[in-house]
Design goal:
The protein has 556 residues and is of the alpha/beta class. It has three domains: 73 residues, Arginyl tRNA synthetase N-terminal domain (Gyrase A, domain 2, 2-Layer Sandwich), CATH 3.30.1360.70; 253 residues, Rossmann fold (3-Layer(aba) Sandwich), CATH 3.40.50; 153 residues, Isoleucyl-tRNA Synthetase, Domain 1. Helices cover 53% and strands 11% of the residues. It has a five-stranded parallel sheet, with helices on both faces. Strands 1-3-2 form a three-stranded antiparallel sheet. It has a three-stranded antiparallel sheet with strand order 7-8-9. β2 and β3 form a beta hairpin. The longest helix is centred in the middle third of the chain and has 25 residues. The two termini are 33 Å apart.
């Protein structure tokens, strides 16, 4: 695709058009060409220019001028060679090299042990994983990190709740789901008691210090049990979501490191003491003051974040560290990154925070403090049940149904999360998310499965892909040609929604092609090319779904 862009740019320059600083774009309406170039200089009479040399190229069909736009139409030769290239490249088709040689770290998901995996973690995982894949697609060496709060007040609340609910504690042989659910109940009990019962609050505050000091064997035993249960359970969820982390960071490790940093830079007047605590005064930078060490001498999230930032870059000299969290933490990160500028300016300049919106339902935002939540796991289970109702009567084995339930449910949720820019809140609609008719993950997966079914039938009929009798290029070929440009732009803008929109339009083009064009039966000499085009669609759809972290089932 870059070659055709170079051909077009050189042809335009030869005709007298200055292409510096202006991009070739794909018109929204295919009637306006396969590429369009906007000429900024209105003093140039574009209609008087000759594009004869450009039109002599075998890949250019014609050039048309409309106002300040030069619209370029590509030839059937270009599209047939594109389809052939897709088949040859397979899983590598559409990759680019804009990030070649770079090392980039993505930190996302970040669930806290002793608490349930809530929908905010599902949001972070979906967005972070897609960012990581799109960046890998652009040539970077990508590492994935997960930062988890295994110490702090939330852990003290959970362990206090475990002690209070000890009679409900699951036996060793119970499965991880039940053990994890118990931890969730214990946290909710501890959290509500901390708010409503002054004596419980004092006990939990004291317990928090005991956990840091590891001074009570009974507490250490409960802590180790709960931590392992949580982390093992999270791994099951990551596997289902298609994420494998390279690094795990924990607050128990970052806290002492952060305290050392704060103490060092307290002496350098970066931080200052206030009412027995240590704070960073952000007002002078247009921000706000945040506590880094509380009055009990314990590190806050902010201090742990400083320790984490240093520890990340000890793993490798990353060119960029991207942190993906809920946008509720946007202001928090502004202060932390400003403090980090004084501690280590190079790391601060290489760190970027991206906030995402919340996943909401008709009952509004969920609270992990009260227990009024839909967990990420329960959401997946609920959607799986709805998927089963849609596929239960289909001629599929039980194993196939089980795999499809999981793949389609996760795909439906991820599509709903990624379909719009990451900073916006999302209202999740169960029925719309599972529609096979458009604007949903299952719609894309079903289009891929349909292509797989056609290819199986072609194989049974003895029809193989070939390019001897090529059809006139239509909408499907023109849509396939956009894939590489879309993925490159998505990486530059951290915008998976561009890929979602593209794949939805691509699926629509394929479904229209399938409905109006014989592919095997009655296709005659054109059948081999149409099978090739179907294979090309399958490849691009599969590649695009991979970038979104969505599985591409071959049967549905």
């Amino acid at each position: 695709m870059k070659d055709i862009k170079e051909i077009i740019k050189k042809g335009l320059e030869k005709a007298g058009v200055d292409t510096e600083g202006t991009l070739l774009s794909h018109p929204k309406d295919l009637k306006n060409g396969d590429f369009s170039f906007f000429v900024k200089d209105k003093a140039i009479d574009i209609s008087a220019l000759s594009f004869a040399d450009l039109e002599k190229n075998k890949y250019i069909k014609s050039v048309a001028v409309v106002g300040q736009f030069i619209n370029i139409y590509l030839s059937d030769t270009f599209f047939s060679e594109l389809v052939e290239d897709i088949l040859k490249s397979g899983a590598d088709f559409g990759k680019n090299s804009t990030r070649d040689g770079e090392r980039i770290l993505f930190e996302y998901t970040n669930p806290n042990p002793f608490k349930e995996f809530h929908i905010g973690h599902l949001m972070s995982n979906t967005i972070g994983e897609s960012f990581a894949r799109i960046t890998e697609w652009s040539g970077a060496t990508v590492k994935r990190a997960n930062y988890q709060g295994d110490v702090g007040l939330q852990v003290a609340k959970a362990i206090w709740g475990m002690m209070e609910l000890s009679s409900e504690m699951p036996h060793t042989q119970e499965d991880l789901t039940k053990k994890s659910a118990f931890l969730g109940r214990a946290y909710v009990h501890g959290s509500s008691s901390y708010t409503d019962d002054e004596s419980a609050k004092k006990e939990i505050d004291a317990l928090n210090k005991t956990i840091y000091e590891k001074s009570d064997p009974k507490v250490v035993e409960l802590y180790n049990w709960g931590r392992k249960v949580s982390l093992d359970h999270f791994e099951d969820i990551y596997a289902k979501l298609g994420t494998k982390f390279d690094y795990y960071f924990f607050e128990s490790e970052t806290a002492p490191r952060g305290l050392f940093i704060v103490e060092e830079f307290l002496a350098k007047n970066v931080f200052e003491k206030s009412d027995g605590a240590v704070v960073f005064k952000g007002e002078q930078y247009g921000l706000h003051t945040r506590v880094f060490v509380n009055s009990q001498g314990l590190p806050t999230y902010e201090t742990k974040e400083l320790g984490l930032s240093k520890m990340k870059f000890e793993k490798a000299d990353f060119d960029l560290s991207v942190v993906v969290t809920a946008n509720e933490q946007n202001e928090y990160y502004k202060v932390v990154l400003k403090a980090l500028e004084f501690v280590d300016a190079e790391i601060a300049n290489k760190t970027r925070h991206i906030g995402h919106g919340m996943l909401r339902f008709t009952s509004g935002k969920m609270s992990s403090r009260t227990g009024n939540i839909i967990t990420g796991e329960s959401l997946m289970v609920d959607v799986e049940k709805l998927v089963y109702e849609k596929i239960k009567d289909r001629e599929l084995s039980d194993t196939e149904k089980k795999n499809i339930m999981s793949q389609v449910a996760v795909g439906a949720i991820k599509y709903s999360i990624l379909r719009q820019s990451s900073g916006k809140d999302i209202i999740f609609d169960f029925e719309k998310s599972l529609s096979f008719e458009g604007d949903s993950g299952p719609y894309l997966q079903y289009a891929h499965a349909r292509a797989c079914s056609i290819l199986r039938k072609a194989k049974e009929a003895g029809v193989s892909a070939d390019f001897k009798n090529v059809d006139t290029a239509g909408e499907l070929e023109k849509m396939l040609a956009k894939f590489a440009d879309i993925t490159e732009r998505a990486e530059k803008e951290f915008a998976p929604q561009l890929i979602v929109t593209y794949l939805t339009e691509l699926a629509g083009s394929f479904n229209s092609y399938y409905a109006n064009t014989p592919i095997i039966a009655e296709a005659g000499d054109s059948s081999p090319y149409r099978v090739a085009l179907t294979q090309a669609f399958k490849t691009v759809m599969q590649n695009g779904l991979w970038l979104l972290g969505i599985e591409a089932p071959e049967k549905m």
